[in-house]
């Protein structure tokens, strides 16, 4: 097997979970594969107990810490795979149980499950993603059949509903971070000489924030403003909202937007002179949405202090 193998595992009991995951890990151990499991705390304990001494060969990760921001998780997997290769493993077997959480996270993490098919396409990795059919909403389960080329339910087979990332990411646009009421600031921008005023406006909106998250907020706002000024067209507009400790910034223009639905999910290639801004934004923000419609394109980001 070469390149990525990406499967969804649908399970309805701990017994069904172990019947699929334990042979997967034990076969990997016998083959000399690196073994990584980013799973729920209860599943982490279950696997450790069932594997016994073999558990020492598995890199266990708390999924609640791992699946916080999609772009950060993708960087994390690349780092884990590089470490595995440095240790001499030809391939990694990964159990990755995404923390879908509340409904506000479902679309972002469904898009992540789709994006990794392209971003890790050449990676020597076999990823099995467990889906608890007792706990997850029907839409999340249905989407898993669209984001995984293979499914186990319990038999292993091609997923007839699978949609390639370039198709699904267009069909499933990102949810806009919510805002309430009129913006605190509404600026029409003309060129980069106005970036100082942009940062002053955002700093005022984030009054009371600690220094570190404020620096991150100023950086991402600068990045979306520069991208809009350089790559957008027509009227460039920056709007800022605040609700409690969350600040939302939106840069919009009249242009057609991004042609690459994967933009910003991975770092730009080595030596590239562009493409880093949206990647930085996706690394730092709690919510990101790039949307395009008849009215133009907008990039809306949300960050919460603390």
TrEMBL record:
This is Anti-sigma regulatory factor (Ser/Thr protein kinase). SUPFAM superfamilies: ATPase domain of HSP90 chaperone/DNA topoisomerase II/histidine kinase. Keywords: Kinase, Serine/threonine-protein kinase, Transferase. It comes from the Bacteria. InterPro entries: Anti-sigma-factor_SerPK, HATPase_C_sf, HATPase_dom, MEDS_domain, RsbA-like_anti_sig. It comes from Catenuloplanes nepalensis. Residues 192-301 form the Histidine kinase/HSP90-like ATPase domain. Residues 6-149 form the MEDS domain.
